[in-house]
Amino acid sequence: MSQQNSNRGTLPQVFKEESSIPDNYKITEIHQREYLLNGELVPWNGPVTNIYSPVCIPTANGFEKKLLGSIPNTTPKESLEALDAAVAAYNNGLGEWPTMSVEGRIKCMQKFVYLMIQQRELVIKLLMWEIGKTLADATKEFDRTVEYINFTIDALKDLDRESSHFQQAEGTIAQIRRAPLGVVLSMGPFNYPLNEIFTTLIPALIMGNTILFKLPKFGVLCHYPLLNAFKEAFPKGTVNTLYGKGSEIISPIMESGKVNVLAFIGSSKVANGLKKLHPKVNRLRAILSLDAKNAAIVTKNANIDVAVNECILGALSFNGQRCTALKLIFVQREIAAEFTEKLSAAVSAMKPGLPWEAGVKITPLPEDNKPAYLKACIDDAISKGAKVMNENGGFQEGSFVFPAVVFPVNEQMKLYHEEQFGPIVPVVPFDSIDEPVNYQVNATHGMQVSIFSEDAKEVASLIDPFVNLVSRVNINCQAQRSPDVFPFTGRKDSAEGTLSVFDALRSFSIRSLVAAKLTESNKTLLNTIVRSHDSNFLSTDYIF
Predict the structure, then answer these.
(1) Residue 478, domain extent
(2) What is the pTM of this model?
(3) Which residues form the Aldehyde dehydrogenase domain (predicted)?
C-alpha cells in the first residue's frame, strides 16, 4: 500500500517506524488454529485467512499493513457441523440450556463475565490494532460491553420476578413466562465487533437459545481470547463459532431451515438476501440493525457552538464509522457560512495518529477500498459544485483519510444519498424547514435525527413529524445508541425489532404459559409441582 496523496499540508506523519511503537502497545502475532464447536476448542489444520491491521508500517515499497495473525477459513462442512451442534443442544427445547432455570442461566453468564474480564487488556489492544479504534474508545467498548451484560442479568431478574406468580382470569389460573425461540444465528459488524454483536448474542443466550456466532470480517481476532470463556461458562453446543466467507458458510445454514432467529447488524441488502434463503420464512424471526444516514438539522435559532461540537462528535467519532453517525448536516442558509467556518476550523484541529497515541481523534481505516470510495464521493461532489472547506480535508495516505467538510452539498450528489460510513461531513444549506423534513420522508432509512435550535416552538414543530419518521429524535445533541436501557431501533430499512437491555430479552423469547381450570384438584396439583421444584418453568421462586 503506497502513498495516495502527497498534499500533506500541516498534518503530522501518521504512520511511524515499528520500532517507535511503545512496548506496551506492541502486538505479538496471533495465529488462531482452533474454533469453538460443541463445547470444545477444535483444532484447525485447513486453509487460513491472514489478518492485517489498518496501521501501516513505512517500508521501501511504501506503506504496508502490519500482519496481526491469521484465522481459520472454514468451509460449509464446518458451518453445518456447528449448526448440528446448536440444534442438538437446543433439542427442540428439551436440551440442558433451554430447560435450565433462569437462576442457573444467570450463574453461567456471571461466570462468563468473570472469565471475560481476565482478557480485558488483550482484547482492548486487539481492538486498537484490528480496526484502528483509539485506546479510549477501545477501552470504553470493552467496559461498556461488560456493563451491558450485567445490566442484562439485572433486567432478566426483574423480568423473572414479574413472572414469579400465578394469574387468574375467567375461571382459569396461569403462569406466564418467557421461553426461548431456538437456534440463533448472530452476525455483527466490524465497527463495534465486541459490543454490537454482544447486544444480540448475550440476550439471545441468556434467554435459553443456542447460538451460531459468525465472527465479523474485521475485529475477529479480538474474540479469540474469549473462546475459552464461552467454553467454560456454558453447556456444550450452546455457543459455536463460525469463520470464513459469509457468502459460502452462511448460505447452507439458512437454506437448512433450522435457524429460528437471524440477529444481524449490517446492510439491508445482505439481510434481505439471508432471509430469502430460509425455506420457512414464517418460522424465522429477524432482529436487524441496518442502514442509516442520520441527518442533523441546524436552524438559525441554534446555538452554533453547541451544534458544531455535537455535530463533530456525531459525524466523526470513530472516523464516522457508526450506524448512528450524523451523515448529513442541514444548515439554515442564514447561518450556513458561520456554521461551516466554525465546523471546518474544529475539524482541522482534530489530531490524527495511531490508536494508542494521546489525544488522537482520527485513525486509519480498516476497509481496503474505503479511501478510494471516499475520494470518489468527494470528487463527485466537487464536480457538481461543492468544495472541501477545511485544511487537509480528504488527504489520504495509505489507509488513513483526514476528514473532509464538504459544502454546499445538494441532492444531485452521492454524498446526499449514500451512507458514506467514513470521515466525510456533508453540509446542505436549506431555506425552508420543509427541505430536511422532505428528505426524511423520501429516505429509505429512518433511524435518528438531531435537531439544533433554542426556539421551543420551532423544536416542538419538528418533534411531531420526526417521531413518525425516525425512531429517535435528539435535541441539541448528537445521534447515538446509548444509554443501553433506551430502545434502539429504526423505521423503514433501518431496523427490524428493538434492541435495548429490556427489549432484547423480549425480542429473543416468546411469551409462554401454563394454564388450568381453577378447580381444587388443579390447585393442589400446581401447588405440589411448585413446592417440590419439579419444574423450572412452573415456579414462584424469587431471584435476588
Answers:
(1) 294-487
(2) 0.94
(3) 57-508
